[in-house]
Amino acid sequence: MLEQLKGIEERYEELNKKIMDPDLVNDREAYQQTMIEHSNLTEIVAVINEYKNCLSELDGAKEVLEDATDEELKEMAKEELRELEEKKDKLELDIKTLLIPKDPNDDRNVIVEIRAGTGGDEAALFAGDLFRMYSRFAERHRWSIDIMSTNEIGIGGFKEAIFMINGKGAYSKLKHESGVHRVQRVPETESGGRIHTSAATVAVLPEARDVEIFIDEKDIKVDVYRSGGHGGQSVNTTDSAVRITHLPTNTVVTCQDEKSQLKNKEKAMKILRSRLYDMKLQEEHEKMADMKRSQVGSGDRSERIRTYNFPQGRVTDHRINKTLYKLQDFLDGDLDEMIEALITFFQAEALKASEE
After folding, report:
1. pLDDT confidence of 295, banded at 50, 70, 90?
2. Residue 207: predicted pLDDT
3. Strand, coil or helix: what is 50?
């Protein structure tokens, strides 16, 4: 590991000199790439320096212990050694975690797709709860939200809601939210007080850049039609709604929220591009024969990942067997504790896989 760390330090020094080169500033793309690489290495170099200082302190404490004749001084040296050994172990783990190849999509914006599953109106209401939950989580992180497409049922729920969250690191925080979310509660219409179970699916897609996914016009079929709303409200009288079908993959995207046909088409193309990019990523993962795959870490969107139990006021993530008894806070966007636990778990899984 020390040899690997030496290489990182040498590369960091190279980048320090490179960013001072006035010629680099004139090449905007090269300058940006250099600054990104420099920024990515800054954290691990700081931990490496702390690790080297810890090793030096350990050597000093060992010398004191060897030379000490006073028993009290020996005990103090032993205690310091114990603390430094613990610190060394933690720093080594931190370094190994930082050495795990970073997901290149982590800093991207995301498109979140929520669809009501089994459970009728109750499932649609739950999909609405999830939409508000992620919206409030985004607000807490000062990220912006752009509604792409919705299909409301008129009582505060959604058959489908698709929206973009714009913010640095949005994908890194939300990528483990894909899967089936299940709710257990007594519906307001239930006179007998029976608990009903319903579900909604969530898909989190990294935003695709135009240059990454080229869509040939001959590969898509574009239909326009008159959009409709519930209860006679929000009904456009022009053919502004857009349905795009990607013929090679039979992927269909519809957008009708905007009054402008052009804006609906732009949003539909953005969703389509991200879905195709996500398909490409999934295919690449499948082709990695040496990749350790398990049901827990598969990211399979048919997998039940979390249960929201209203009678007990709890939310349980089944992948990491973690339960929080603060359901209302969770639905109000307080997701950080669960999300950080998921990130830690999947980092540990990646670390294990890299050591095998």
Report:
1. very low
2. 85
3. helix
Residue 188 burial by Cβ neighbours in a 10 Å radius (0-12, 13-18, 19+): exposed
Residue 310 predicted with pLDDT over 50: yes
Six token digits for residue 94: 């931190």
CA 56, CA 79: separation in Å to the nearest integer?
16
347, exposed or middle or buried, with CB in 10 Å at 0-12, 13-18, 19+?
middle
Cα–Cα dist 331/103, whole Å: 28
pTM above 0.85, yes or no: no
Exposed e or buried b per residue across 131-152, where buried means at least 16 C-beta atoms within 10 angstroms of its C-beta:
bebbbebbeeeebebeebbbbb
Using the predicted structure, report yes or no on whether residue 232 has a pLDDT greater than 60: no
> Using CA atoms, how far apart are residues 150 and 130, in angstroms rounded to an integer?
13
Task: Determine contact, residues 246/274, Cβ cutoff 8 Å.
Answer: no
